[in-house]
Amino acid sequence: MLFQFVCIICFVGVINAAAIQQKKSSADCEWITFEQPLSHFTPGVIGKTFQQRICINKEYWKPNSNLPVLFYTGNESPVNEYVDNTGLMWDLAKELNALIIFAEHRYFGESIPEINGVENCMAYLTSSEALADYALFLNTIKNDNTGKWGVGNVPIIAFGGSYGGMLSSWMRIKYPSLITGSISASAPVLGFPMDNCQLDASSRPVTYATSNEAGSSKYCSENLKKSYVLLYDINKYNWGKQLLSKHMNLCTPLSNNNDNDIYILLEYLQSPLFDLAEGSYPFETDYITYALTSSHSPLPAWAMNVMCNDIGNDNYNIKIENKINTSNTDVEFTVSVKAKDNDNDNDNDNEVKIDVNWDKTTNNNYTEDILLKTRSLDLLHDVAQSIQVCTVVLCVVPCTYYCCSYLVLYHDMSYYDMTFLLTFFDCHKFHITHTPHSLTHSLTHSLTHSLTHSPTHCRSHTQRSGIMLLVMDQIALIGQDKHQPLI
User: CA 46 to CA 293: how far, in whole Å?
Assistant: First the structure.
């Protein structure tokens, strides 16, 4: 559905004000490794093992005291990312005098098996194998007779968020004699097609994150919705493509001959909403940027609110009205805006009016002159600028690289991955060949041009820590000294 927020959101942990004041981190861990079999279920790989990385914190706990264990079921990132950005476990551990354990998921972080020469080596990267890893470790420490652990037969509560939340809930279901209970944050355990999940279930939390109720500015949510409709409809006209390219400051103008351009631009504007919502912690954090780019450049505190500040304090005199007599399952509404010199509410010939029916729009044949008398293009300009709080971490580049947003967000990838994404998103800005040199040369030239023509403070910030530098550093300079000055 073109005009709905189509994103899945998952918050990793619950953080309160106390946790912000004294936020615990991986520096508070005692790091150990635990030997796990490559497979708990496949006889053909008996004898092959790997070392699983585990964080232990005994700050509030005493051995042999019948005190509980709080266990994080690690998911698809290095486990220290969850240690650094989870608050509830630390708060409860202090209250309950509990032992804290964060276990790293197999095949992630430093818990990677030696799989050279192993047939079907990726077949052992499954949720069942991961759950068995956690169960083996917990059974080991509970039934330890050497006195090394001193845990004993105590309650164990599993924690997790997103996929990790699915794992924690499945741990309780699959190993009920081991796990006393589980707390699963935003775990899409019912998010499978056969579970009859609601069509827009994944978009509702993102929409909420842009709302005034969630702390974002008043008009943010509706302005985003209006902007997608305006962008899509204005693009139908060749003169509209020219206006959009100019007012949104696109590095590559929208093409009159390529209908895919508008979908690529919409994808650029909508995709970061997932990351901004998921990364809206009450403190500055690199949880999202590290997961996406291996960068330690943080998003600001309440990142979605920061993005909304640029577009949510004004409705731009643009109205959005739901259709009457439509069911809750219909996506039908109208976006309209009067020309600046038109005070007559009944003068429909001097306004921009767009009717939406799912992924189709129809309009009242407005002209370029009428559009220019509205504030529609002001809104679209501001939306393009505001979304860059995610793509370049608060450093506004002089033009919008709509065709390579995924390169900005996902820079730490192979040449073949880059080629696939560029091709998939029709990134005609760059010439794709089979040699990394030509691709990286094009990227270097384009991104360097962007930075050299941006304000000095932006360049210095980006050179220090911005994602754009990391794009250049790890993609455009393949095979070169990564610490070589770029500008």
Answer: 36
